[in-house]
Design a protein that fits this description.
The chain has five domains: 10-47; 60-71 and 319-410, conserved putative lor/sdh protein from methanococcus maripaludis s2 fold (Beta Barrel), CATH 2.40.420; 76-85 and 230-318, Efflux pump adaptor protein, beta barrel domain (Elongation Factor Tu (Ef-tu), domain 3, Beta Barrel), CATH 2.40.30; 88-115 and 203-229, RNA polymerase II/Efflux pump adaptor protein, barrel-sandwich hybrid domain (OB fold (Dihydrolipoamide Acetyltransferase, E2P)); 120-195, Helix Hairpins (Orthogonal Bundle), CATH 1.10.287. The protein is 30% helix and 35% strand. The chain has helices at 12-56, 121-156, 162-195, 246-255, and strands at 60-66, 68-84, 87-90, 96-101, 108-109, 114-118, 197-199, 204-206, 216-217, 227-230, 235-242, 259-263, 270-284, 289-296, 308-325, 330-332, 335-341, 347-351, 353-357, 361-366, 373-377, 388-390, 409-410. Strands 1, 16, 17, 18, 21 and 22 form a six-stranded mixed β-sheet that branches. β12 (259-263) and β13 (270-284) form a beta hairpin. α2 (121-156) runs antiparallel to α3 (162-195). It starts with 11 loop residues before the first helix and ends with a strand.
Amino acid sequence: MHGRFPKNLWSKESVDFAKSNRTALAIGVAVILVLAYLVYSFTGASQQARRGRAGAEGPVPVLAASAHTADVPVYLIAVGTVKPLNTVTVRPQVDGRLLSVNFQEGQDVKKGDVLARIDPATYQAQLDQTIAKKAQDEAQLANARIDLDRYERLAATASINRQQADTQKALVAQLEALVKSDQASIDNAQALLGYTTITSPVDGRTGIRMVDEGNIIRAADTNSAIVVITQLKPISVLFTLPQQSLDDVNRAFAQNPLTVETTRSDNDKVIDRGMLKVVDNQVDQTTGTVKLRAEFPNADLQLWPGQFVNVRLLLRTLKDVTVVPTGAVQRGPNGTFVYVVKDDNTAAMRPVTITQQDETQAVVSQGVAANERVVTTGFARLTDGSRLTIDGGQGAPGAQPQGGQRRQRSN
């Protein structure tokens, strides 16, 4: 019995004590790990926050430009269609064989220039017949007048019945009317003969020839056109504006002639300058727009019938107004504002009133004075009072934004 291992070497109290030590050790290790994690997280976050504040508190890089005074034109913008002042489809007025075509396709012609000739033989013969008929009737009228004079003298002496003289007087009147009818026939025949020579009714340019020499053409045939003549100098442009602009246009048009410019869509270059001629007398109810027509000299033939062009109508010019770049104007819950660069290179948020604005410049009526610098880009980190670094050298006093005078729209 003494040689065996004692059964009570590990008592219940010893086992419980060992288990308690292991549990306490595990809990201690867990607490240490948690504390280490919290210390590390707090320290790292604090360092990142300090670095973020340090970055935020640094100067904000921006671009700036100076406000300036300028004369700003106010335009109304539209898309127009070029229309000729006159377009004439030259058709025959008499039937016959086309003897000659006297123009080249695309030729500039003047009013009265001969375009074509129709065989005049038939119409010359009709004229000759009417002339001969008139000569015959005039001879009969002369003889009747002689007889009337004789009958009047005989009737005065009661040598013949008065009724015979009256009958002769009626015959003379009848022949006089017949001679007048003959003259009308002559005039008609002369007109028909004149129609065999086809002339240009307007100044313009000929199009593509529609009939060739030798063909029989007829006045009643709507497909027997010879050529279309289009007047190119001057030329007109039709365009539409919203009915909301009608009052401004009529008011300005009543005071002065209004200038209209056509521009290219790719580079905004002016093609030609003309004058507004007509404001239509009614508004299109389906579109809510009103038609206008402007006339252009088109000296260089840069406007062509059927062409679409950009149109801008000059309503007025704002004199000596304060202008800032459009990029400087910001909008917030309380309206429009700009950031003004103060002398100590800090930003001051200032509310402004914008009266006109386009894609390049804005007219400021209140809030900014000429030669004050305004921030144009770099608004992401910008707040009221931020310190600034002006990049690009655009903050010098007197600097003006590029773009010149462009179209303005009411704010």
